[in-house]
Amino acid sequence: MTNRRNDTVALAAAKAGFSSATGYRMLHDPRLPSQRGGQRERRRPDPLAGIFDEVVVPMLEAAPGLRPIAIYEELRRRHPDTAFGSRRTLERRIRDWRAMNGQDRDVIFRQVHEPGRLGMSDFTWMDDLGVSITGVPLDHLLYHFRLPCGGFEHGHVILGGESFVALAEGLQNALWSAGGAPKLHRTDSLSAAFRNLDADAKIDLTRRYDALCAHYGMAATRNNIGVAHENGSIESSHGHIKAAVKDALLLRGTADFTDIADYRRFIDEVVTARNRRHAPGIDAERRSLQLLPNARTTDYEEVLVTVTSSGGFTLRKVFYTVPSRLIGHRLRVRLYDDRLDVFIGGTRLMTLPRGRAGASGKHGHIVDYRHVIHSLRRKPMALLGLVYRDSLFPRDAYRLMFDHLLQSHGEREACRTTVELLAMAHERACEAELAQILTVDLAARRSPCLTSLRARFAPDPASLPEVVVELAPLSIYDGLIDQGEAA
Questions:
Q1: Dihedral sign (CA 323, 404, 445, 418)
Q2: Tens-place pLDDT, residues 65-92
Q3: Where is 289: in which H helix or E strand?
Q4: CA 334 to CA 353: how far, in whole Å?
Q5: What is the Cβ-side half-sphere exposure of residue 401, based on CA atoms within 13 angstroms?
Q6: Could you read off the pLDDT of 339-384 as tens digits, one per residue?
Q7: Any idea what the Cα angle at residue 272 is, between residues 266 and 276, rounded to 5°?
Q8: Helical pair 9-16 and 20-28, crossing angle rounded to 10 deg
Q9: Contact, 141 vs 125, CB < 8 A?
């Protein structure tokens, strides 16, 4: 308009940088387009007229949590011949009504985390990653610990469900890996760990957890039941660490591992790589952590069991075999997440892998055929109806050969031959090699020849010669001393 004082409309518009048509339009009405336009009116009839205020609003007031899809389906049921527009129209109208008239909602308060103040623990399922051990799918959890200020993380593979033992082992591993302990330790309500426990057991578990935290100088805190966002600094991190594990599995080319130790090393590598990205923040927070105690505290449950005449004991609906010489003895068992340490008095006898009962409550079995083969050899027909027969076979080849012998030679010969094969595998330390031979025999549909197998894995321990070692008398050393003095 300043240029218009001395120039024509076309020249003034050109100097201002727009078309002459725009110049003539501004000459007649200098208001902005947003100021000239009237309020936009509806271009089509309201499909919810006479329905939203009369039907939908009372439903929302009576049941504030009702989903829009449920209301939409209810409207279609009540008025089958009426068109309500699209489902999106109803959802938008309900959202606008709730913004104006709805109930107050919970507010999430973002927190400023102080170095060394808070550590968080939680468990997350890992079954959807398809991890397997030698082809067998692995049902497991990941114990996840995080220092939200510096970003330090620690992961520990848990084979059972959430329990105090799993929490104690994972937490202590995390604290010693971090190099210190925070002032507070936050968990969820631990409802899964308390499930199926009586009142006394719950009180005992609470005391043990408080004692665990006190050992490291931490105050135990929990978020409210069902309010996951109060633990959000670790809940949201679950997805990130699982995505990192999934990417690493894809790069690895397979999700199958040789054993659980191999898989745990893989998880440690993934978590270490994530910590490397936050190394400056982690190093800064370590200086604010409390010093660790001189030693770890208890991360197991201790149970007393009695070895029965069946050659083992039952613990948590799982039967474990032990050497038969322990029948009648009372053993002390330290129960970890993945193993059992067995003691008699103060002497540690052995370590057994921990078993789990079936999902339907069916008892499990952890059987070592070496513990019972000497008795089974005297009663081979006991194999036929043995409760834990399938768990007795150390490899699939032995079980498949037993099934083959049942079909081709009958029950008596099948039991006798299979027991002899197991005894040979134990006495001559040829379990793996013998399994390979049995696999070849199964492929050819032929039965094993015990005579040739005994000759192949000779010598027989019973036929080994007895070696007698004659010890020299100690008096000859006196002569050696005399010779040294003479020299």
A1: positive
A2: 899 999 999 888 888 887 777 788 889 9
A3: none
A4: 12
A5: 29
A6: 999 999 889 999 999 998 877 778 899 999 999 999 999 999 999 9
A7: 150
A8: 110
A9: yes
Contacts made by residues 307-311, CB under 8 angstroms, sequence distance 24+: 307/331, 311/371, 311/372, 311/375
**Partners of 342 in the β-ladder:** 333, 350
Side-chain half-sphere of 144: how many Cα atoms within 13 Å?
27
The predicted-structure confidence for 243-299, as pLDDT tens digits, reads as follows 999 999 999 999 999 999 999 999 999 999 999 999 999 999 999 999 999 999 988
How many other β-carbons are positioned within 10 Å of the β-carbon of residue 233? 19
Tokens of 50: 């006479």
- Spatial contact of 116 and 288, defined as CB atoms under 8 Å apart: yes
Rounded to a whole number, what is the largest CA-CA distance in the chain? 136
d(CA 434, CA 446): 15
Secondary structure in 3-state letters for 367-380? CCHHHHHHHHHHCH
- How far apart (Å, rounded) are the C-alpha atoms in residues 369 and 426? 8
Q: Which tokens hold the place of 442?
A: 């199964």
Q: At residue 252, what are phi and psi to the nearest 5 degrees?
A: -70, -30
How far apart are the C-alpha atoms of 266 and 140, rounded to whole Å? 15
Q: Which helix (DSSP H) or strand (DSSP E) does residue 184 occupy?
A: strand 184-187
Question: Which residues does 142 contact at the CB level (< 8 Å), separation at least 6?
Answer: 123, 124, 125, 126, 155, 156, 157, 158, 241, 242, 267
